């Protein structure tokens, strides 16, 4: 009788990312409250929102003239699941962000790995600063999938071998690649999110071009969709003013 492989240690592969809004205290009225307290003192929500066009105009003025602090009085917490190399880029954003990522020191990491999907352009052409990405050939796509999957299998087997020998998780994890999926809670406000979106998305309304890696852009797009639902006037003003954070 042969042993049945433990399904929990069998590598799996995915090409997507997930973003879940788990908690939010964020609305356009938060911006209005913060902005008007300096000139009108504390006001009721009814007073703040009784004139929608005035509210829209004030938010657009704040965005256009880069009065940024009123956009900080709100909070959004996201649960993000993505490859570790995405988090390496994400953690460059430090102002207005708080992070807690799952720890390979305290738990055994699951074998879920990133392999690019068919829509992911594979080939970089041109020199730095003037390059573009193209789809690549069918042969390159097949090679990428095959080589990555084999590499992932070998690295996870090495990780399991170290754990089985009693090596501490925090040491054994050194065998694992940045294509391993991780998860984290990321908390921000609208101002810090706008700075993130300005750098990590490519958008036709942006006055300052950005060239994000596609995988972190996928995360950014999902976060932006949740934010746009919560703060539609602020999101519209962000777009109308060239997607430049105040």
TrEMBL record:
Binds 4 FAD per tetramer. Each FAD binding site is formed by three monomers. One of its GO terms (biological process) is methylation. The active site is at 200 (involved in ionization of n3 of dump, leading to its activation). CDD domains: ThyX. It catalyses: dUMP + (6R)-5,10-methylene-5,6,7,8-tetrahydrofolate + NADPH + H(+) = dTMP + (6S)-5,6,7,8-tetrahydrofolate + NADP(+). Its cofactor is FAD. DUMP binds at residues 89-92, 101-105, 173, 200. Its EC number is 2.1.1.148. GO terms for molecular function: thymidylate synthase (FAD) activity. Belongs to the thymidylate synthase ThyX family. Catalyzes the reductive methylation of 2'-deoxyuridine-5'-monophosphate (dUMP) to 2'-deoxythymidine-5'-monophosphate (dTMP) while utilizing 5,10-methylenetetrahydrofolate (mTHF) as the methyl donor, and NADPH and FADH(2) as the reductant. This is Flavin-dependent thymidylate synthase. It comes from Streptomyces zingiberis. The lineage of its organism: Bacteria, Bacillati, Actinomycetota, Actinomycetes, Kitasatosporales.
């Amino acid at each position: 009788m042969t042993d049945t492989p433990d399904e929990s240690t069998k590598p799996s592969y995915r090409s997507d990312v997930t973003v879940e809004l788990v908690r939010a205290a964020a609305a356009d009225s938060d911006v209005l409250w913060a902005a008007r307290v300096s000139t009108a003192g504390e006001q009721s929500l009814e007073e703040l929102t009784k004139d929608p066009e005035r509210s829209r105009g004030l938010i657009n003025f704040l965005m256009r003239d880069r009065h940024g602090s009123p956009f900080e009085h709100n909070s959004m917490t996201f649960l993000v699941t993505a490859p570790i190399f995405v988090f390496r880029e994400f953690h460059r954003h430090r102002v207005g962000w708080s992070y807690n990522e799952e720890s390979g020191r305290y738990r055994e990491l699951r074998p879920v790995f990133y392999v690019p999907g068919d829509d992911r352009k594979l080939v970089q052409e041109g020199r730095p600063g003037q390059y573009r990405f193209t789809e690549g050939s069918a042969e390159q796509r097949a090679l990428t999938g095959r080589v990555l999957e084999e590499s992932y299998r070998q690295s996870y087997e090495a990780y399991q071998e170290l754990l089985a020998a009693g090596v501490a998780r925090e040491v054994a994890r050194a065998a694992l690649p940045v294509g391993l999926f991780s998860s984290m809670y990321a908390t921000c406000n609208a101002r810090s999110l706008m700075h993130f979106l300005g750098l990590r998305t490519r958008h036709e309304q942006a006055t300052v071009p950005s060239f994000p890696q596609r995988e972190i852009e996928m995360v950014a797009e999902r976060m932006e969709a949740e934010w746009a639902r919560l703060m539609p006037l602020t999101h519209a003003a962000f777009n109308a003013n060239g997607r430049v954070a105040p």
